[in-house]
Automatic annotation (TrEMBL):
Disulfide bonds join 410-422, 430-439, 478-487. One of its GO terms (cellular component) is side of membrane. InterPro entries: EGF, Laminin/Netrin_ECM, Laminin_N, LE_dom, LMN_ATRN_NET-like_EGF. It is a lipid-anchor; GPI-anchor. This is Netrin-G2. It holds the Pfam family Laminin_N. The lineage of its organism: Eukaryota, Metazoa, Chordata, Craniata, Vertebrata. Residues 1-17 form the signal peptide. Interacts with LRRC4. Residues 410-454 form the Laminin EGF-like domain. GO terms for biological process: animal organ morphogenesis; axonogenesis; tissue development.
Amino acid sequence: MLYLVAFLLHCLPLAMGHYDICKSWVTTDDGPSWEFYACQPKAMRMKDYVTVRVDPPGITCGDPPERFCTHENPYLCSDECDASTPDLAHPPKLMFDKEDEGLVTYWQSVTWSRYPEPLLANITLSWNKSIELTDDIVVTFEYGRPTVMMLEKSLDNGRTWHPYQYYADDCMEAFGMPARRVKDLSTTSANRIICTEEYSRWAGSKKEKNVRLEVRDRFAIFAGQDLRNMDNLYTRLESAKGLKDFFTVTDLRMRLLRPALGGTYVQRENLYKYFYAVSNIEVTGRCKCNLHANLCSFKEGSLQCECEHNTTGQDCGKCKKNFRTRSWRAGSYLPLPNGSPNACAAAGSAFGNCECYGHSNRCSYIDFLNVVTCVSCKHNTRGQHCQHCRLGFYRNGSAELDDENVCIECNCNQIGSLHDRCNETGYCECREGAAGPKCDDCLPNYYWRQGCFPNVCDEELLICQNGGTCYQNQRCICPAGFKGILCEQSKCDSDNKACNSASSTYLSLTPFLISALILQLQRLLDF
Ligand SMILES: *[C@@H]1O[C@H](CO)[C@@H](O)[C@H](O)[C@H]1NC(C)=O
Ligand SMILES: *[C@@H]1O[C@H](CO)[C@@H](O)[C@H](O)[C@H]1NC(C)=O
Ligand SMILES: *[C@@H]1O[C@H](CO)[C@@H](O)[C@H](O)[C@H]1NC(C)=O
Ligand SMILES: *[C@@H]1O[C@H](CO)[C@@H](O)[C@H](O)[C@H]1NC(C)=O
Ligand SMILES: *[C@@H]1O[C@H](CO)[C@@H](O)[C@H](O)[C@H]1NC(C)=O
Ligand SMILES: [Ca+2]
């Protein structure tokens, strides 16, 4: 049986091509069952799914209509761009259309009439989906390629941008970078950001039209010419995270910084021949599905992986609900040639029957207790199944047990609370006088000073005696001749008659105040 499984594992995916299928129905001695494999979608022409934006506003030619010339024929300015006439308009969508044979269609910018102010344009392509490039990005320019441009990329739907490649006829002058070629890169520098002069020099506007980001040449560093040894490439993509990310994008931006000059300096007397014109942008890649899908479809305006292995999300980046027995993992190209699916698993499945609610990857058998228990529960959980919250944390009522946010820190005030544990609704246990869910408030008649202390006095009780005044609820400031916490004691000698009488008056008048005093003293002593 083992032999049969091994045989099937070995042959089926290979018969289909590399990582093309996610599962297959196989027959073993134990009967038929599913086998699962690491899988990825086919490469596609990504320009069919892109959203484009051209900046700044007004950079597209034709509004108002404008004449332009070519470098070959600089004084025969017979061409015209007019946005209101379909045949003469050059909107951005013409960079992505299917061209009928012989008819080249292109987006075109305004001419450089505002020279010497630079002629700048950004072309931003967005997919709202992570894409792994599988072939060169090829941008086709009509009427000459820019002398200076750069390519940027984003991995987070345009929130942050990073340089991808610099292009100039003189890299040192334009960007302060030495010129390099991808062919000269090595295995350790395959994801280096370079400046290249290969695509920016004047070669006649008809001859060399393309500007590339060389993906194949970079693959070839590992897979050899003709990309024969893809296994070696996949092994490298697996072990070097930076390398995989290098070929992954959600957005691309071309920053056009200086147009073609026709091999000479800018001629101020004829600025109608300087502009950008792009007829095609070819981006070939596959949806990034973390090796958990072999199909990627265009739904509701966005590409989406059709996730297998009980994963879900736009990139199959998490486990489906009820399949979070262990933490999510991307599928793996390794071991060669078929990889590992790293499928998400439901409770009670092959994972030794030990449910950890996705907070642990590992179970361990404890011999003397004869139990299997989760090891190193994450997300502040604990317990045999990571089903409890660690001390000092409480259960998030709106989160499922397999949610990363399932345990919330108690955050008890260290001074106001007895310990850092709390009850199921996050209430801490307070010391005397303290109050509030976190014990950082004081009860009425208490004041906060490194903890809650009982008020000795306050405005309403007017508890300070013999004309004493209350200071911040903490003590009575006594008039001359009186002392004590409530100024209840006379300072007079006992053999002074006048004093004795005053003191006895006080005693006889206010037995209530004495008991209040004793109460307050008791509180202070208890504390
Ligand atoms: C192009 O995008 C960059 C950011 O990547 C921005 O700094 C620049 O101002 C933009 N240029 C134009 C012309 O919109
Ligand atoms: C991006 O894709 C997500 C997931 O498919 C979708 O919910 C969202 O609406 C999309 N955003 C845009 C701007 O298309
Ligand atoms: C996913 O879950 C279903 C049950 O809903 C199961 O039949 C299938 O085998 C699971 N797939 C994997 C890869 O675990
Ligand atoms: C409780 O869990 C929900 C669902 O995951 C989460 O949105 C919320 O932020 C969590 N609450 C706290 C206080 O962490
Ligand atoms: C937690 O303590 C607070 C305050 O003592 C109380 O109101 C609440 O009912 C307690 N919650 C539980 C679940 O015991
Ligand atoms: Ca076109």
